[in-house]
Amino acid sequence: MSEIRVSALRYVYGQGTPFEKIAIDDVNVTIPSGQFVGIIGHTGSGKSTFIQHLNGLLRPHGGTVCLDGADIFRSKEATLAARFQVGLVFQYPEYQLFEETCAKDIAFGPGNMGLPPEEIHNRVLEAAHFAGVPEEALDQSPLDLSGGQKRRVAIAGVIAMRPGVLVLDEPTAGLDPAGRQSILRNIRDYHAATGATVILVTHDMDEIARLADRLLVFSQGKLVMDGTPGEVFSRDEALTALHLAVPSATAIAGALRRRGVPLPEGIFTLEQLEAAILTCRREGAPC
Amino acid sequence: MLKDITLGQYFPGNTIVHRLDPRTKLLLTLLYIVTLFVANEAPASYLVLLAALGGMIALSRIPPRTMLRGLKPLVIIIAFTAVLNIFYTPGTPIFTLGFLHPTWEGLAHAAFMMLRILMLVCGTFLLTYTTSPIALTDGLEQMLSPLKKVRFPVHELSMIMSIALRFIPILVEETDKIMSAQKARGADFETGGLLKRARAMVPLLVPLFVSAFRRADELAVAMECRCYHGGEGRTRLKQLHMSGRDAGAFLAGAALLAGLIALRRLGL
Ligand SMILES: Nc1ncnc2c1ncn2[C@@H]1O[C@H](COP(=O)(O)OP(=O)(O)O)[C@@H](O)[C@H]1O
Ligand SMILES: [Mg+2]
Question: Residue B136 domain-assigned?
């Protein structure tokens, strides 16, 4: 169980200086255990700042963050426990690798938890499997791997703590399409296998429409939409106003509908679009 | 947390102090520092020096609070110097406590010493607050350019300096990021003994060095792609030139110096 409850959250960068910037403004949200949550929003909307509160890296200037009903800042121990329970993968995590071998780097988190060596060893293997790190890479130096593989090692380093909540900040940024697909598949499999909550920050609307149970939309530090992908992506004017796109399948379905093809609402993935068009044809509509 | 370092931070502005030629500001700051050390330790001389500094700060519109915030890291050094002076200056003792005998002369000396350090630091802050790092290094390069005659690598040094200055904020930001990322895996940078803390720095320093070298490499390639080949025949986007403003500043500086020499003659 790992329920996250965020209330009246507020965070200001550079408080008391001429460069003050309100990054998070009155955000309220509850994320029940096991949900797959997507966070979308324009660059600078506060997504990265928001997720750094979930494991207590940033201390809010207002409001609270509760994990299973208890404030994560109630004591130093509680904050440390939150670090392990809410695993946070930063953007471009490959730049934090520091050990001589990948296995040692993945073991850093479990080591900090004070686990016995054989337990750490098991977790390294398990995490490498979930993150798609090939076994022969474990004894190599992280510096010798490709960018995509480094990123997998970094993700494994967080998964190895077996967090009840896995938070990833744009894990596919800067990867090629195949690498992107395969990392997302790994994340989905991890979610399915462990039942952990997954919170995924992304700009890829096509993917998040397919993966998420729920979408949070940020704009200028505020949570402006909160609903299923269906609810959020049906408000395409509102999204466009926030400089966000709808998934390409939704855009295509909309364009076809405007040309008189009787497609239903609520199409977010290419599979749904394909099925809807085929149904249309079978019913003899003009496609 | 690392962002709190304000030492040497530039505050953009368009006041007369900002618009002075960087060479003028460098020379006058140097003059001010020398003056601080040769001025009489007497109230009148220090009042004049303080007034000059206060006037410049007012002209530059740098909020006095910002100035004082920059002094924070130096409080301990200043206090330490002052205490030493109180005890080690010979003269009339205030009281005697064992081997400790603070003196009135020491107290006065310490007060002047403190003022002197404060004015020195504020004076140099004024320079770095009102002059962009690039302008500063440009000014330095121009001032040192006669040394090129003796094969001193003036341009290279100033290029190294501008690049270093340019990269400090980037590295600070990077340090912040890597620290957060390791903390997210339970790293602890704040508690424990010296050895434990030194060991805790490894996960921070290794990635930091790796990325610093990567950045240096990328920068070198980018510079070569734009045909950088050293200072030879290189022209500037922003030419430095002295104006009436600078002449005025030098006159004011000379007046200050003359005034202080006169006060010294009078023993004030
Ligand atoms: N370390 C920082 N110092 C000052 N301002 C920051 C810092 N990090 C982010 N900001 C500012 O806070 C706002 C939100 O940033 P961020 O949370 O990174 O947004 P996102 O991840 O959605 O792109 C932006 O305006 C950004 O400029
Ligand atoms: Mg971000």
Answer: no
